[in-house]
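To whoever picks this up:

The nightly regression suite flagged UPF0220-domain-containing protein as changed. Nothing in the input moved, so I suspect the structure step. Input below, exactly as stored in the fixture:
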Amino acid sequence: MSLPRASYDPRRVFLISCPSIPFYRHRRTIGVYLSGALFAIANWVFLDAAIYSAHAQPPPDAPYDTVPVHVTFLDWLPGIISMIGLLVVNLIDKDRLTGEGAFGGSGDSRAVWRARVILFLGFAMMAGGLAGSVCVLVLKYIIQEYPEQYNFYGIAAVVQNVSLMLSAVVLWLAQNASEDDEYNYQLTI
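Regenerated output under the current build:
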């Protein structure tokens, strides 16, 4: 007995077909450019806050007052740690994590273990940078109750670290994207 013929392909999920995305073939290139844009935005936002802080003037109604807070090395430190973490994560050969490829083999489990530890340390550095920037925002800017315009310095550091983490994740996924295999997802760690 045969089943009745359907007017649509039974393998499809929806009755209405989804439009094909013409730039899907270039997802690796798009991911790399998006990651670079996030990296540039991260550093631009923080450098904008640092330059704004360096040129901050006291209010015009009190010209002899001092500016209450500036961006110091303490504000730079979480971003530096996050950038080092981003470099560590993206410099690891992805084939080392699974033990495949030219470097790893079925008998080289120590190399796989070391690569995973280094990957964990890179992600931990990025998470520590984000946590550090949130701590600086809260302890240096919010608790001290500076005027609203000075909170921008701490918010810029948090935006920088979030953007650096997103940049690392997008670049990680873009490096694992396969150009030739359209239906292959390689999200292994």
